[in-house]
Amino acid sequence: MELPNLQMDFDIYNDEELILRAFECVQKALDLDPMATYLDKLNVIRLYDNLAVQFNGDEELMRHWVRTGNKHLGFTPYLCIHNPALLTEMNEYLESFRYR
Predict the structure, then answer these.
(1) Within a domain: residue 1?
(2) What is the 3-state secondary structure (H, E, C) of 52-71?
(3) How far apart are CA 26 and CA 21, in angstroms?
(4) Residue (of 61, 57, 3) closest to 28 by Cα position
(5) What's the count of helices (H) and strands (E) in the chain, helices before strands?
(6) Domain tally, the chain
(7) Beta partners for 75?
(8) Over the stretch 19-66, which tens digit does the pLDDT of each residue have?
């Protein structure tokens, strides 16, 4: 699933609407629970970006990473994605690979 080009729609959306629209796309792409409460939507979008870089945009691999226990993190990302502190930890972990 390819994310829509939100830049093209920039003029008709305010920042909050752009974030919500991008989050909804990420939620679908990573097969996240639509009924769950995500306190930090920007960090969920950041997670998608980090995973896209790590897995060259392969959403099947990205979903697998999110749903598989990670011994380095000590938890399964999918089960902790609603926790802002653990979500930040996931992003920092992925970004450590990005800048090697």
Answers:
(1) no
(2) HHHCCCCHHHHHHHHHCCEC
(3) 9
(4) 3
(5) 5, 0
(6) 1
(7) 70
(8) 899 999 999 999 998 888 888 999 999 999 999 999 999 999 999 999
